[in-house]
Amino acid sequence: MKFFIETIGCQMNVNDSDKITDYLLISGLEQTNDMPEADLVILNTCSVRFSAEHKAYSFLGRIGEQKEKNPNLIVGIVGCMAQYAHKEIKRRCKFVDFVLGAKEIDKFADAVSKFINTEYVISAKRQVGVFQYVTIMRGCQNFCSYCIVPYVRGPEISIGVDEILNEITGYAEQGVKEIILLGQNVNSYNYHGTNLTELSQKVSKIDGIKRIRFMTNHPKDFSDDLIDEIAVNDKICKHIHLPLQSASEAVLSRMNRKYTYENYKLLIDKIRNKIPKINITSDIIIGFPGETDKDFQNTLKASKDLKFGGLFIFKYSPRPNTKAYKFQDNVLLGTKKERHSILLDQSMDISKKLNEQYINRTEEVLVDAYVDGVCESRNSQNIKIFFNSDNNMTGQIVNVKINKAFANSMFGDMCEY
Ligand code: 5AD
Ligand code: SF4
């Protein structure tokens, strides 16, 4: 039997799909990247913005056509949209065999076993890459007013220290070099008193692990001891993704982010003082209900002052159940698009200028992939760096002298040893 899995959404979903893949492989199924070949199709869905749901329904349309050609095809829909819209999915897509929400992902084995016979195959394993996401926390209870995540993933739970360390040790033995510790708010990790700083110290002692990253940080919980640890621990990468969302105090308060722009700025100053080489990236939501032109100008100015290395900019999308769903979505789509493009242009300019400072500098990079004679790698700051090579250097750490810089990537030459 062959299975096909499609994943929409964040790294948390990618990680859940990895777990599902691991399970199906040890259950004797074979993975295919070609949907028409599959006997089982799994779609892992996202609900963070309306556009993600739209994407899921169009993919479901394709699956439906496939099921007409192959009535024996088993179809499972999992993830965040499956959590809160399971009735709607079943109503619109009668061909779906099972729907399993993000909160119930641990019941995947039970759900799928009703439709397929599984046998335990010890030798089958997912091919791991250079880096691997490892979930250290599930759920979120911050209830930012625009966000559906707390409703679809439930309250925050920290995963046990030993469980995390065992999982990472297994990956290290298979050749993984970089671990990304994953959670909606990794800064509030706490397992019987062990916090993120202590967890990172333990991870950095695992043989074979060369780099550690975090995803995602919340400004309200970023502790001084973590800043100090990032500063002194060579294995922790000098990149922090720290979503700001808006620089307007009024908007931040309506978003229920629990920090002010002033607090955020002080945090950034403190981080930069202690870790001069740090690259800070961020998320911004454009067109939150009631966002005035003045609010937007504040965000635009702040994004310049704070010199973000990169920005993910999202147009506000009203989500059912959330507090902001009751606010009027009163920023016109045209205005959202305009603000989005102004901020994006500025952000690309800033990133390019920051990256140009790397020209003629030598960067230590970890190679992720080798495609057509080109090594794709990243430095500690998480900037993508390409260089030509006769050899596939995937998984190795090498020095590259940068000669060209763009907003989202840089190019260079590998230094001889
Ligand atoms: N509309 C637009 N963007 C959103 N995000 C979360 N919820 C919404 C929403 N309803 C963005 C936030 C978050 C990122 C992962 O997605 O910026 O940091
Ligand atoms: Fe959503 Fe806020 Fe939780 Fe992030 S911290 S997942 S934005 S509620």
Task: Outline the fold blueprint.
Elements: E1 2-7, H1 11-26, E2 30-31, E3 40-45, H2 50-69, E4 74-79, H3 80-84, H4 86-92, E5 98-101, H5 108-113, E6 131-135, E7 137-138, H6 149-153, E8 157-158, H7 161-173, E9 178-182, E10 190-191, E11 194-195, H8 196-204, E12 211-215, H9 224-232, E13 239-241, H10 249-254, H11 261-274, E14 279-286, H12 293-305, E15 310-315, H13 333-356, E16 362-371, E17 374-379, E18 384-388, E19 397-405, E20 409-414
Parallel strand pairs: 1-2, 1-3, 3-4, 4-5, 6-9, 9-12, 13-14, 14-15, 18-20
Antiparallel strand pairs: 7-8, 10-11, 16-17, 16-19, 17-18, 19-20
Helix pairs in contact: 12-13
Bound molecules: 5'-deoxyadenosine and iron/sulfur cluster.
The site of iron/sulfur cluster has 10 residues, from helix 6.
CATH topology of the largest domain: pyruvate-formate lyase- activating enzyme
Rough outline: globular
Number of distinct beta strands: 20
> Helical element count?
13
**Structural class category:** alpha/beta
Q: What's the CATH first level of the largest domain?
A: Alpha Beta
Tell me the distance between the termini.
48 Å
The helix content, as a percent range, equals 25-40%
Major sheet: order of its strands? Answer: 2-1-3-4-5
Structural domain tally = 3
CATH architecture designation of the largest domain: Alpha-Beta Horseshoe
Q: Name the CATH superfamily classification of the largest domain.
A: tm_1862 like domain
